[in-house]
Amino acid sequence: MATSYVGAIDQGTTGTRFMVFDHGGQVVANSYERHEQFYPEPGWVEHDPVEIWENTEQVVESALADADLDAEQLAAVGITNQRETTMVWDADSGRPIHNALVWQDRRTTDRVEELQDAGTVEGIREKTGLECDAYFSATKVEWILDNAEPLKLQSGRSRDLRERARDGELLMGTIDSWLVYNLTGNHITDVTNASRTMLYDIHEMEWDDDLLAEFDVPEAMLPEVRPSSDENLYGHTDPDGFLGAEVPVAGALGDQQAALFGQTCFDTGDAKNTYGTGSFYLMNTGEEAVESDHGLLTTVGFQLSGEPVRYALEGSIFITGAAIEWLEDVDLINNAAQTAELASSVDSTDGVYMVPAFTGLGAPHWDGRARGTIVGMTRGTGKEHIVRATLESIAYQTRDIAEAMEADSGIETTSLRVDGGAVKNDFLCQLQADIIQTEIARPVVDETTALGSAYAAGLAVGYWDDIDELRDNWRIDREFVPEMDSEKADAMYGRWDDAVERSLDWAREE
């Protein structure tokens, strides 16, 4: 009998990856493809869902071919995805009616401010655990239904989108739902992705009628909500489809919850931070949905079949890795690897602070009108100072979250598990340990987002017996301990607050 594996589709903000893992959690196949970013207006960000699906087919096929694997060797496939990114498609044709609105998209900021003025945000927070923000799916799907061009029917006439949505002719979902739909034909999401829509009550664990009414989203559009690891399966791939095999699709997690799962943060108090386009710091709070008084989100961490939901506190930082991309875009660096060399060529930033609020600020500030700011420059400021300030901004934003997390949970962070592309940068990891004044643990397998979704799917089909088996797979690559004096770290961090203050409430319409 051929050796079996578990596959993971990792659909992220900038591209799509397919990875195949063995029983020890080691990577045996890997393929990646970028997709285009669309910016129709300032603050607007869109993706083409058809391109995303075509890229998904491509990376699955190429990863299997490169590793000389057959799709029949996949015991299951799991999905992880950029969260909150929202789309609507025609249930009959499967055709999107508009580009997906990406989580970074700020076009519905005015609508959020209407809700704030109406005094409804506290009720939204109580039910969903979320700040009322354009980041989440509710105002995005509302905008699509209000603004997308109606699809013409075969008769040649067009019908109102909301009327079609009420009749179940249009489907709404985050990217996991889109992928599950294309893989299996079923309209399903998992509890973690549902919890990011601002339409789902995370205490009752159901779509909320009042929120659906507020945003005029018909329930007929919504996917069925399932556990993150589902023994009943989301469905199977079509044996006549692109894979040529009937493979169980058995689990899904939003990317940050998938990283929490992949880092084996299964116990209350376990925490991880993922450094991608943005950074996302999550702490497992167990079966208790801890309410935040410090600007954090309360969210669903994961759910295994037949078990209670596990909750998490989350600090969402919108721009970290994307700030490194910006340095490259404006020719301050040639590639991301150069940042460590440039930053370490100077002893400090010489008082320069960079606040990368390109799409507003997330936790704990929640200012959708904040914008990117560089302060403290002199005639002697060089690109190395700006590069170092950009890396420091990632560390400062993470400390913002770490302090809020400790205040809300009462749990002191003694070790933070990190993952994502940026943690390959030793300089950044050491800087992070210094600024937070805590140990940073980097695992051997740093693609923990894909690994987490593979674990969820594998558990569902019995590829792994239980989470203790997964704990045994986790291995540390390197630990970073604070080397900076705590008083110096505090002083550097103290000026960060001043820099943030100058970025706030900038994007005002004339």
UniProtKB/TrEMBL annotation:
<feature type="binding site">
    <location>
        <position position="421"/>
    </location>
    <ligand>
        <name>ATP</name>
    </ligand>
</feature>
<feature type="binding site">
    <location>
        <position position="255"/>
    </location>
    <ligand>
        <name>sn-glycerol 3-phosphate</name>
    </ligand>
</feature>
<feature type="binding site">
    <location>
        <position position="17"/>
    </location>
    <ligand>
        <name>ADP</name>
    </ligand>
</feature>
<keyword id="KW-0808">Transferase</keyword>
<dbReference type="InterPro" id="IPR005999">
    <property type="entry name" value="Glycerol_kin"/>
</dbReference>
<dbReference type="InterPro" id="IPR043129">
    <property type="entry name" value="ATPase_NBD"/>
</dbReference>
<comment type="pathway">
    <text>Polyol metabolism; glycerol degradation via glycerol kinase pathway; sn-glycerol 3-phosphate from glycerol: step 1/1.</text>
</comment>
<dbReference type="GO" id="GO:0004370">
    <property type="term" value="F:glycerol kinase activity"/>
</dbReference>
<dbReference type="InterPro" id="IPR018483">
    <property type="entry name" value="Carb_kinase_FGGY_CS"/>
</dbReference>
<comment type="function">
    <text>Key enzyme in the regulation of glycerol uptake and metabolism. Catalyzes the phosphorylation of glycerol to yield sn-glycerol 3-phosphate.</text>
</comment>
<dbReference type="InterPro" id="IPR000577">
    <property type="entry name" value="Carb_kinase_FGGY"/>
</dbReference>
<feature type="binding site">
    <location>
        <position position="84"/>
    </location>
    <ligand>
        <name>glycerol</name>
    </ligand>
</feature>
<keyword id="KW-0319">Glycerol metabolism</keyword>
<feature type="binding site">
    <location>
        <position position="135"/>
    </location>
    <ligand>
        <name>glycerol</name>
    </ligand>
</feature>
<comment type="similarity">
    <text>Belongs to the FGGY kinase family.</text>
</comment>
<feature type="binding site">
    <location>
        <position position="321"/>
    </location>
    <ligand>
        <name>ATP</name>
    </ligand>
</feature>
<dbReference type="GO" id="GO:0005524">
    <property type="term" value="F:ATP binding"/>
</dbReference>
<keyword id="KW-0547">Nucleotide-binding</keyword>
<feature type="binding site">
    <location>
        <position position="83"/>
    </location>
    <ligand>
        <name>sn-glycerol 3-phosphate</name>
    </ligand>
</feature>
<feature type="binding site">
    <location>
        <position position="13"/>
    </location>
    <ligand>
        <name>sn-glycerol 3-phosphate</name>
    </ligand>
</feature>
<feature type="binding site">
    <location>
        <position position="84"/>
    </location>
    <ligand>
        <name>sn-glycerol 3-phosphate</name>
    </ligand>
</feature>
<dbReference type="InterPro" id="IPR018485">
    <property type="entry name" value="FGGY_C"/>
</dbReference>
<feature type="binding site">
    <location>
        <position position="83"/>
    </location>
    <ligand>
        <name>glycerol</name>
    </ligand>
</feature>
<feature type="binding site">
    <location>
        <position position="256"/>
    </location>
    <ligand>
        <name>glycerol</name>
    </ligand>
</feature>
<feature type="binding site">
    <location>
        <position position="14"/>
    </location>
    <ligand>
        <name>ATP</name>
    </ligand>
</feature>
<feature type="binding site">
    <location>
        <position position="13"/>
    </location>
    <ligand>
        <name>ADP</name>
    </ligand>
</feature>
<feature type="binding site">
    <location>
        <position position="255"/>
    </location>
    <ligand>
        <name>glycerol</name>
    </ligand>
</feature>
<feature type="binding site">
    <location>
        <position position="135"/>
    </location>
    <ligand>
        <name>sn-glycerol 3-phosphate</name>
    </ligand>
</feature>
<dbReference type="GO" id="GO:0019563">
    <property type="term" value="P:glycerol catabolic process"/>
</dbReference>
<keyword id="KW-0418">Kinase</keyword>
<dbReference type="Pfam" id="PF02782">
    <property type="entry name" value="FGGY_C"/>
</dbReference>
<dbReference type="GO" id="GO:0005829">
    <property type="term" value="C:cytosol"/>
</dbReference>
<feature type="domain" description="Carbohydrate kinase FGGY N-terminal">
    <location>
        <begin position="5"/>
        <end position="262"/>
    </location>
</feature>
<feature type="binding site">
    <location>
        <position position="13"/>
    </location>
    <ligand>
        <name>ATP</name>
    </ligand>
</feature>
<protein>
    <recommendedName>
        <fullName>Glycerol kinase</fullName>
        <ecNumber>2.7.1.30</ecNumber>
    </recommendedName>
</protein>
<feature type="binding site">
    <location>
        <position position="277"/>
    </location>
    <ligand>
        <name>ADP</name>
    </ligand>
</feature>
<feature type="domain" description="Carbohydrate kinase FGGY C-terminal">
    <location>
        <begin position="272"/>
        <end position="460"/>
    </location>
</feature>
<keyword id="KW-0067">ATP-binding</keyword>
<feature type="binding site">
    <location>
        <position position="425"/>
    </location>
    <ligand>
        <name>ADP</name>
    </ligand>
</feature>
<dbReference type="InterPro" id="IPR018484">
    <property type="entry name" value="FGGY_N"/>
</dbReference>
<feature type="binding site">
    <location>
        <position position="321"/>
    </location>
    <ligand>
        <name>ADP</name>
    </ligand>
</feature>
<feature type="binding site">
    <location>
        <position position="421"/>
    </location>
    <ligand>
        <name>ADP</name>
    </ligand>
</feature>
